[in-house]
Amino acid sequence: MDLAFSTAYSISKAGLIRFVGCLQPELKDTKIQTFAVHPGEVAGTQLSDIKYVTKDYVRKERPEVAEQIGSLLKEILNCHTRLPAWTCVFLATERVSPESTVC
Questions:
Q1: What φ, ψ does residue 79 adopt, rounded to 5°?
Q2: In DSSP terms, which residues pair with 42 in a beta bridge?
Q3: pTM attached to this predicted model
Q4: What ranges do the domains of the chain cover?
Q5: What is the rounded CA–CA span in Å between residue 101 and residue 62?
Q6: How many angstroms separate the CA atoms of 41 and 13, rounded?
């Protein structure tokens, strides 16, 4: 979603996604895999604090933007903090295929 005053956030997130996407082919001959984890839907993080998400001047000069961002965050921040934590554990854990399992 394109939101006013979210340029830096959007660019940094897009940059991370592209970095990971470009890095993976460079590492194709290794056992290293790359992942970009975006825990943006996790409640209880700084994202739920509108004072953290928007700058003071935005809240002062464009309060409607802060309200729009705040209402959007209330809609999407619905996951527990365990979600990104366990996702990272899953991605970092070596998974063995059934064919390679020795009984």
A1: -105, 155
A2: 79
A3: 0.50
A4: 7-94
A5: 59
A6: 14
